[in-house]
Amino acid sequence: MSADQRTHRLTRRGLLQAGAAVGAAAAAGVVAGTAATPAYGTGPNPPGPDGGERLVLRKGRIHTMDGRGTVVDSVAIENGRFVEVGRNVPPRGGRVIDLRGRTVVPGIIDNHNHIVLMGNRPGHHTPLENAYSIADVQAIYRERAAKLPAGAWITTIGGFHRNQLVPPDETPRLPTLAELDEAVPNHPVYISEGFSGPSTTNSLGKAFFESLGIPVGADGSIAAGSGATGRATLALRQTLLTFEERKRGAREAIAYGLSLGVTTHLDQGAFQASGTPSDGAAHEDNYTMHLPFLALHRDGELRARIRINFLHMESDPQTPELAARLRNQFPNFGDDMLRTVGIGEFIAQGTGAAFAAAALRVAQAGWRAEVHSLTQTDFIAEIQAFEAANAQFPITDLRWVVAHVPFITEEYVHRLKALGGGLSLTGWRYLAGTPAQNGPPFRMIVDSGIPAGMSSDGMQIAPMNPWLHMYYATTGRNARGEVINDGQQITREEALRLYTRDNGWFLREEDQLGSIEEGKLADLVVLDRDYFTVPDEQLKHIRSELTLVGGRIVYDTGVLT
Ligand SMILES: [Zn+2]
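A: This is the predicted complex of the input protein with zinc ion.
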């Protein structure tokens, strides 16, 4: 039995205990008195809830996203919620933070991503989605290495594309062994693109992989697919992943999101791992991978809100596992910090008989279903199956969702709208899209009036960074600078609304999250530049200076505090 398998066996019991704890734990967020570290996940945990302290943020440009275009200059927070939103809100003895004119927006809600996969990566996973050159990769890795003991693995598995790393007139490529050695000579490195490579490594990594018979080129290249990248990823999982490492990874994944302003993640599961080299970056054990996140929650260390969909991909039309899930799991169960949602982003394998049967079962059980569409035609079969299910068990109040939808037609948008459904839109084409592989049709969908929201679909074939997705949605440009989604651009106001206010609907929490209004949970982001006025290219570089979740300071660069 591998170490990985031992961890899984040991923690099955933990799953049950943690599941019970979800319901019992009170997640009353309150104001924390001290700043967290700006470095993602490397500092101490923020203080826990400590009562009804008042926090007042003043002198900002606070875009409330209340649906009426209200911009205020101050807010007061008590017991994890906004209690006053307006102008010159008085301190009344509370702690005051001067925003010095900064732009403030509600906490970003990512309605469809794979943060649980990111949290379970082997090694010290280091996002490269914000690298714009090979030199950037070197700088990011150097900075990471400076905080780690020599010999610790530095890895990046998914979330970026070589298209980002070279100027438009050069051929896209990954960093070489020599370039990685130059940056981090004392740490083994593994950088793997997308679901299954190609990948690259440095001298220390090459020696490790070759000792296991895994082929590595003289330049550090590791071929895509199960023969090389699949074996390398599996070897790292089997060698490095312990439960404590997964917890560290989960903490760092959440902290990375908070540095970008992402305060709520709706996770959409993984392909079920086989423990063989055919597993890629998107494979994990759907029955144990949430445990590190549940453990953080139990310990009061969960800094962002996690929402969980359960992925099912059975080809058997009887869908026995899905049937068991629907009988034995609670939807929308948990608390403000951690909660289950529905079934997704798959309900069955393919869009045939098993899909239709699964749709019927989910409808009968009264759960939310989410599926994804990637092709010119798959949404047709999906929405027709939704209609058939609805004819037997009404789904119009269940908020079923189709995600990604690069090629959905206006007819099917309206057919899904008639079912009470919604669309999750992502800018994942930013990384590797072309004028033929583009979409989604943001403009048409927003104008249709169907419930819609934005998501990243990170962390394999897309970045988590919401500002990259807003860049794509508003400019139609990919990472090579080419306009590929012309005619479907939306405004910055619309893109931000899709990522905040409109995403409350996807969680069935529109009364709690998504805007800065009295009574709502106090999640907000103080931005380091003005989203509404910076030049397009600057959108990509927007970061948080201060992030609050439930009124608690969970990310702080120290600039304002
Ligand atoms: Zn996804």
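The radius of gyration is 23 Å. Residues 1-51 have pLDDT under 50 and may be disordered.
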